[in-house]
């Protein structure tokens, strides 16, 4: 399901509202909520708006789809963007579970299935750090484990990474995929047409329908 928005701001507003609704429902029915955040440019406007949502943030746990193996203060750290743009104001009461250093697998397992997953996508069709060209990709796409290591030399920047697996992502109660530009829309078309890309595995395997939010520019 591809939803079109005229600008990154309009996309951010709509997606933040949808994610907040998922978290609110989780808090109401289960007493806690688990959110998977992601890196890149696309989620920034979502975080800015989601941070203002009226939620009991103290009962929300935020983790990440993937992380570069860098210091928490590095500009390349996905957790840094989450801390600076999402976990502010009342939302600072949420608990952040970083992926680097690698957490206890039991801490991730306790969040499954995630209530809401935010993902970006590369022009090579990667989601999280499930990147074409990784010699361990087949394992990451098929294993029932929840975390995998990704070697350096892949992605931008080409640092080593930790990523949630396809199994962990597709169990989620809701999945939101954020993309911008015609090139990425074409990648989605190819994936839906049957090309074997990580994003295609996500679209085909997700327990919940994946909502794809698209705008022409970032």
Automatic annotation (TrEMBL):
One GO biological process term: pentose-phosphate shunt
Residue ranges of the TM segments: none
Domain Glucosamine/galactosamine-6-phosphate isomerase: 7-203
UniProt keywords, alphabetically: Hydrolase
EC id: 3.1.1.31
Record pathway: Carbohydrate degradation; pentose phosphate pathway; D-ribulose 5-phosphate from D-glucose 6-phosphate (oxidative stage): step 2/3
Gene Ontology molecular function: 6-phosphogluconolactonase activity
Catalytic activity: 6-phospho-D-glucono-1,5-lactone + H2O = 6-phospho-D-gluconate + H(+)
Presence of the UniProt keyword Amino-acid biosynthesis in the record: no
Top EC group: hydrolase
One Pfam assignment: Glucosamine_iso
UniProt-listed SUPFAM superfamilies: NagB/RpiA/CoA transferase-like
Stated role: Hydrolysis of 6-phosphogluconolactone to 6-phosphogluconate.
Family: Belongs to the glucosamine/galactosamine-6-phosphate isomerase family. 6-phosphogluconolactonase subfamily.
Protein name (record): 6-phosphogluconolactonase
Gene responsible for this protein: pgl
